[in-house]
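ok here's MOC2B synthase:
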Amino acid sequence: MAESELKKICTEMRKKWPTLKHIVVHHRLGLVPVMEASVIIGISSPHRTESLEAVKYCIDALKSTVPIWKKEIYETQEFTWKENKECFWTDNEVTVEHKREGN
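and the structure:
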């Protein structure tokens, strides 16, 4: 499900910025140490403005629409499951338009 949502985001970026050449989005799996990146987004285009706008769109869309859950493990070995505060299925505001399938 997460992969199909990421593909939708990439398709939408290509519609919004047709000059984009290459897009890569990678979300790490497993243990991610504190202060390390969990998401890598790389976008190339003839002009940097399009790439920078597309990267911002991509991370905002990923955070608000892709069902990625985080298990935070604390020093005490206690843990909690977290969801992104931007996700559309919570009561928080969403900054990126998202249509649910069937709507």
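+1. The chain is about 30% helix and 20% strand.
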